[in-house]
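note to self: dont lose this again. the chain is below, predicted strucutre after it. 448 aa total, dont forget to put it in the shared folder this time
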Amino acid sequence: MGSAGTELDHKIYVAGQILDYVRDRLVIFMPYFNRALLYMPVRFDLPKSADDQNGGAVLSTDGREIFADAEGVINLFRTDPERLPRIYLHMIFHCVFLHPFSLSGKDRRLYQLAADCACEMAVLDLDINDFVLPDDARKREFLGRVREAAGDISADRIFRYLDAHPLSAAEFGKEADTVFMDGHRFWPSGDAGGVKEIFISRSASEEFEEQVKQWKKIQQTVGTENLSYRKGMGEKAGKKRIRVSRVTRDDYDYSEFLRRFAADVEEVRLNPEEFDYIYYTYGLALYENMPLIEPLEYRSSKKIQDLVIAIDTSGSCQGAVVRSFLDKTYSLLKNSDVFTERMNLFIIQCDCEIQSEVRITSDEEFERYMKNIEIAGAGGTDFTPVFARVDELIRAGEFHDFRGLLYFTDGLGKFPEQKPSYKTAFISVGRVADKPKLPSWVRAYRLS
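---
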């Protein structure tokens, strides 16, 4: 017994170290999600049961604790280490979306399938390169069919569809293993469905309500309205439209930055560097209104006439991030003398498709745009539509001297495969949580 106990203790210790490592990696990649990731302690007490319909799961939860199979964790980490973070994240998404607390009155098996679909889509939308699995393509294909049939990828919507279409439910049920990751055996059902009673310090109803309340608080800290899109390089465009009430500018002059995109132009204005006031005033004094030397009417300077500014409005760039992009856009244009009097500026909003395009030709038009701007998007992230649109504008002759594209983004998205023929700068504002992997041709800048 002593030897067996020592061996078990060692396995629990090793499994605990593994799960700490898994959780730490997730926190590094998702710092905005840390409260959800760190909320539940781990108990190595996942009993094996013949009636466990999620047999083989190494992790499960009741919304209060994580139940782990120590031997299963060790074996999985040895054979498929990237699957553990995916299982962990999938399980946490269940709690954030309140799936374990939403079983009452529902067919348990159908709802669990619907919830698994919702969580796997949310995890896949994160598109974290370090946690890619070999079967992700199969998952995406399956979830695409589910979305097409149910019209959405939320658990409630999928469940209603499955409940109303038994034949489809049976067909999708045959592929439930595609999205199976964690066990659901400890989910409180709110009925006498044979689920083990797990709340012992207080009544089940009191504990149930307390956990729902806690996870709703966590929802607010991580912003669940964006979770299904966050950091997505997905293919689904967002439908959100947010009116921005006030855009400000900082005190920094971005002229030097913009001159990297400027060209030499001649302007009709006095050039004080080449104008000799002595001869000019002497002529006026000698001949009254006839100067001896006329002032030079032209001078060469670095200016921009044609430019495109794109703003990433995907789910990973919402709220304060987009406002920072807008503030910097305002500063670039208003704290600078780099633009010619005849401005030809396109401002494009894009998540994974172009949501808005405005042409600005004067300071007055720019002021009106920034005063009444509305942000549209919150979908996946794809930079290629903007580049395709710029190519269209070039072919259509909309530019006289196109100087380039400034793209405000966190850099987490799908890039064009080929380097564009014009200057391009991907600009981030402030600190970026995840360092993006950029193609070699990308010029990245950070405006603090």
